[in-house]
Structure formats: C-alpha cells, structure tokens
Amino acid sequence: MPADSSLSRVLIYRLGSLGDTTVALPSLHLVERTFPGAQRILLTNYPVHAKAPASAAVLGDSGLVHGYMRYSVGTRNPLELLRLAFEIRRFRPQILVYLMPVRSARQVRRDLSFFRLACGIPRIVGASAASESRRLLDPVTGRFQPESHRLAELLGSLGDAAPDETCNWNLRLTKDECRRASAALAPLAPSPLFVCGPGTKMQAKDWGTENWRSLLEQLCARFPGHGLALIGAAEDRASAAQAAAGWRGPRVNLCGELTPRETAAVLKRARLFLGPDSGPMHLAAAVATPCVIAFSARGLPGVWFPVGARHQVLYHQTSCFGCNLETCTIEQRRCLLSITPAEMLAACERVLGAGT
Question: pTM value?
C-alpha cells in the first residue's frame, strides 16, 4: 500500500512494556511509512510491574508515535472505559491500527464493538486478521512464529513490515542518549565490551545468581581484556553485583542508572549480551548485538526469541513447556535450571569465535 497522506489522525493499539514495544518496532515503522503526515497516538497500558518500563520510555523521541493514551489492563470499570472512549472521541482518529497479542475471536469482537460503537472509529486494520491468528509452528525448525512477524502479518493490508530487515528495528537513538551511554562506559574504555542483564521480573525466568556468577567468572578467564557492563532496574543492582563478583576485569554496574534507550545505546557498543528472556534482550537484538540467552520454557519456542541470525538461545524443551507460569513451584524451574554455565560459555564461544 502506498503512503497515505490524506489521514491526519491514527490510533495504534498495543499493550505491554519494554519487550512488547520493542518487537512491534517493524510494525510501527510500517505505520509511519504508510501514514507519514498523520499524528500517531499509541493506546497502551500503565506498566504492570515496577521493573517494566512504559512504552514511552522505549520509543522516546523516535517520532514513530507522537503521544500516548493509557488505561489499566483488564479494567471493567465503566467510568474508566467511558473516560477512555471520551478521550478517543476527542482525538477523532480516522483509523485504528490493531497490534494486540493473540486473542480469542470473542475478545477481538468485544474490542471492535468498543472502538467502533463507543469510540466512533470508522476504519480498523489488523483486527480481522487477529481474530484468526494463532501461533504458527515451523515443523522443520520446531519453532513457532516470532511475535514480531505475527504483528507484521496483521498489517499485511498496509504493506510489508519486513521484520527481518535491520533498518526496521531502528530506535532512532538521539545524540544525547548515545553521549550518556558513552559517559557511563567511560571507566571501561578502551576495553572491548560485554553486557550482562541477569535480572528479571519473573521468578520463572530467573536463572539464578550463582549460575550467572559462574558463567561470568569463566567468561572473564576465557576472554580476558574485556570490560563488563551490568544493566537492569535499580532493584537488580545488588544481585547483579553478586553475579559479577568473580569478574576480574574492569566493570561498571549501571542498574537503575540509565533509561531503556540509553541502555540500548550501551548495548549497541557490546560484542555480546548475556541474560534471560527479557526486555534488554530485545533491545540488544534491535541494535544488532548478538545475544546468548538462558531461556525459560514457560513460553513456546521461537515466539519471544530475539530476532536475528547471530543469537544463541538455550531452550530446554521439557515436558511442561509452554506453561506460561510467572512463578514455577511444582517443577522448580526444571527447564531453566537444567541449563549449565558450561553450555552458556560454549554458546558465547560460538558467537565470538574460539580464537577471539
């Protein structure tokens, strides 16, 4: 579909925080290309966890969207829904771009009724495809369709979002954001850089401080002369320091000190990112930094893997895979804790090269 300059107001519906927003980047670039002259507003949720940055912290001054409307996920409060409908009607969007997770046909119909009848939006793209969407399995690889590719398919009527092309993941980091990243990394210069973000907001994704400590100690011995930057939320600062206690080279603990976009600028300078399934992982992939990930099997393999060819994802597909649990007590994180530091180190060597 060629660019449409006739529309002046576009509402984009996408929930989530850091990772959910990052994987939508190719679709957001497509919306910008299709409606270059429109005011694009993102309808999203308030962060549901202290460690989960809002979409605005991810998109910043990229220009992909121009503002935000927010509401509480899952609310059935009539007053809040009326307030939201009033705010949308005041904006008067000519089109809604529907970028929601996989939902039931009933949920999609409910959303359509709200946006058409309560909000008066005349045109909606993506919702009809969403009502038929499901997780597609590639029988050759055993992986399911990445979320970024599923979102791109929702918007097929607008054109090709091309999620495999690096340019469509561009966060458009500013000079100031890059400058602040440089200042944060100054104590490590001129050493080549590894970045580790061991923290996670979910117990089911937590590989464990001792595993990270063992891996980082071995990585430091195997690849001497590198600096290490630790990233994450302020709440991760103490555990990240413990994880890096065996690192004998220069290191900086940046947990809680950088915005998500400044963190992306740090990641852009790294040879490698190490972490669990997390928002920083998606930021690293967006700036084309290879990732080595200890990946919980709570989700289906492939859906939330970092997009790109150079990553190493360790995913042990136990019998309980796809449980979607946030807290795993019965199986004691069997899928995740069966991944060893030796496996992770071998994955690092595959990315970096044995002689590096």
Answer: 0.94
**Mode of pairing for the β-strands spanning 67-71 and 193-196:** unpaired
pLDDT tens-digit series, residues 61-120: 999 999 999 887 777 788 989 999 999 999 999 999 999 988 888 999 999 999 999 999
Helix, strand or coil, per DSSP, at residue 104: coil
CB 297 within 8 A of CB 318: yes
Length of the chain: 356
Domains in the chain and their CATH numbers?
Answer: 9-169 (3.40.50.2000), 175-352 (3.40.50.2000)
Contact 266/258 with Cβ under 8 angstroms? yes
Cα distance between residue 312 and residue 326, in whole Å:
23
d(Cα 279, Cα 265) in Å, to the nearest integer?
14
> 50 pLDDT exceeds 70?
no
The stretches of 155-230 forming alpha helices (DSSP H) are: 175-185, 209-222
Q: Which residues pair with 149 in a beta bridge?
A: none
